Give the backbone structure.
Amino acid sequence: MRSRITRPKTTLIGVSAIALALSFGAATPALAAPADSADSKEPTARAEVPHLALPEASAPRTRTAQSENDLFSLSSDRLEIDAALGYRGTGTVTVTAKRDIRFGNQGEPSVTPEYGAKFTGVCPPYFGTTIMHAGDQCTLEYYFAPQSHYSLGAGWNMRATPVTPAGVPDGDPVDAQVSINGNPKVLETSQVDAGSVPVGTTSDPIEFRVTNITAFDLPILAINSWGSPVRLADPASLPRTLAPGESANIPVTYSPYSVGEQSGAFLVSAHPPVPDWGTDRPASFIANYSGIGVEVPLTATDADFGNVEPGTATDRTVTVTNPTGRRVLLTAELQGTSGGSELTIGDFDPYLAPGAQVEVPVTWTPADLRSASGELGSIVFTDQWSASSPKNSAVSRLAGSTASVQPPVEPTDPTAPTDPTAPTEPTAPTEPTAPTEPTGPTDPTGPSTPPTTAPATPSGTARPAIMPTTDAAQPLATTGAPELWTPLAAAAGGALLLGGVSLALVARKRRVSDETA
């Protein structure tokens, strides 16, 4: 069994194991070979870095042997050994005999500072054979101590022949092979989980963690998208050099190209060391991302036609906006139009650039008075290039009424109070008017005798009527009535002559005054 590390990617040829490697180049000097001689069959010692807490070796990945036979069993027919640069990883494969066999090792393991093998148990010499009995085991222990970022490819080829207890061949031989791969590790990276981000937009910066797991100083150079939606957010954050075991958070962004869940890989460019025979150039290392592209909804304004006379065409415009960050192809469809009305959509440019708007003309011509006030219908604008299901769309609602339906009167604002009128100065009082002399009394008119009319004698009575006269008081005085009745009688008779008596008294007083004078 032979193994070596080479730059080209090759495959196993015949019974020889040829290394499997990927060349990405490097910059720093190669790690010096340990003190072990290249001819030594023992593994090299691990390069120690006191502050870097790493396991002695990563757990090897193995696979159960695909071919089953009656002669022996294999613990695995494939051995994967992961190891960080400057550190050692190991793995083992065991052969167990099921009966007496002659077991042969068709090769000799190579032993170098970076890789090598040794056998323990009932094992044949190199390019030789040995007799194994049922239950005997032969174990191959392989080590990988990468000093560059090149991968290792090797193999263990074997042959077993059934034999009798005396060692005589007793059937056909069985060949088997174990594939051995050494995988150098340079970086540990976190996965970029972007969450939901609108298509055509860019997420806020996301922390992408990078750790140098090698035994060397490692320059981190760049983030290479490699066709992915991941980009370096801050160009000033790279390049930078990480010491062994050091970590750094590098800001990246995520810009989904399409709708739906997405995952994939992007590349981290670094400059690991290479051996003297390697090519000095940066290497790229794979990191993973995941995210969800979501659709940004289109937007559309509503339109109100107001109160329209039947048969009169009224125009309005609806504004559609594309916030998706990509071009869209719009279609417009009327939906839910009420009876008795006629709505039409005018021509507009259906191709809308990212962030652009388009004015869509709409005309309403109510046919008659049956059109109800309120919702007339709607226009649904759809992006035919949308990858979402259902497709990205926006709805514009249309409203209006006919002239027979009076729209509600908007309340008016109360009239603002006016400023109070400034008070005027009081009017100056006028002087009082002088009193006039009183007018002297005039001579009174003499009393007139009231007319007397004899009342008609009612028919059927013999009682004569009593007529009042001016002498009525005299008969009362002579009838022997008390004196108290005299003034009463005079008053009764005088009541009829009140006006005349008063004037007579005034006249008499006047005459007395005149005579006295």
Summary: The domain at 3-185 is CATH 2.60.40.10 (Immunoglobulin-like). The helical segments are 473-477, 485-495, 498-516. The CA atoms of residues 30 and 277 lie 9 Å apart.
